[in-house]
Specification:
Layout lengths: L13 H14 L3 H11 L5 H38 L2 H38 L2
Helix pairs in contact: 3-4
């Protein structure tokens, strides 16, 4: 007697079908085994998780917007310090500018990862 009693039929475009055939060929498994393995290993993102990623994306975008403006403000203060002869302040402001620039670069990497995650998870939604 068969263990599996439910049969399904799905439609695929040419690209999806080619991907299935490639996975079958490389793994040496049947279509059924490839599909069941994919189903068991698939991570389906909930709407709640996608909402949280979108919220994180929005927060990160706001943070990066603020970080982008900070070096300009610091440069303006540095010019004023230079004009008044407060050299120690210029060095401190220069260090702050570099730190903010580094934070911005790191933040942009994180932001891109969040956006990629949202995009990938949207494609996995039913």
């Amino acid at each position: 007697m068969r263990k599996r009693t439910h049969q399904i039929k799905i439609w695929m475009n040419d690209e999806e079908y080619a991907l299935l055939l490639d996975k079958m060929q490389r793994s040496g498994q049947t279509r059924q085994n490839v599909m069941i393995s994919a189903l068991k290993e698939a991570t389906i993102t909930t709407e709640e998780e996608i909402s949280e990623l979108k919220r994180s994306n929005s927060l990160m975008a706001d943070l990066l917007k603020q970080l982008r403006g900070m070096p300009t403000n610091i440069n303006q203060v540095a010019h004023m310090a230079n004009a008044t002869g407060q050299i120690a302040s210029i060095n401190e402001l220069s260090k702050m500018t570099n730190q903010i620039s580094n934070l911005r670069r790191e933040g942009e990497v994180i932001w891109q990862l969040i956006r990629q995650s949202i995009s990938q998870r949207k494609h996995m939604q039913p």
